[in-house]
What does this fold into?
Amino acid sequence: MYRLELDRTMCISCGNCIDSCPDLFEFADDGISSIKGVEISDIQALELEDPSCSEKAAGNCPVMCIKLYRDGEEVL
Ligand code: SF4
It folds into this structure.
C-alpha cells in the first residue's frame, strides 16, 4: 500500500506535478497544487494501491513537497 502526501504550504505553483501526473494533481482555487478528490488542507494525504504517476510527480517537484511512502517507508 502506498501513501501519497502533499505539503501545500511549500508549493510554489510551478505546475510540474500537474503536467507529469494530471490523474492525481490539480490546481485548487487558491492556485496551489492539490491531490484530486482530497479535502483541501495544508497537508493532504491519499492511500493508493497503485502509485501510478505519483512517483513522477514527486521526482519532478522542485521543492520536494510531494512524498511517496510504501508500507511506511519513504520511496520518494
Ligand atoms: S511540483 Fe511541487 S511546487 Fe510544483 S505545483 Fe506541484 S507540488 Fe507545487
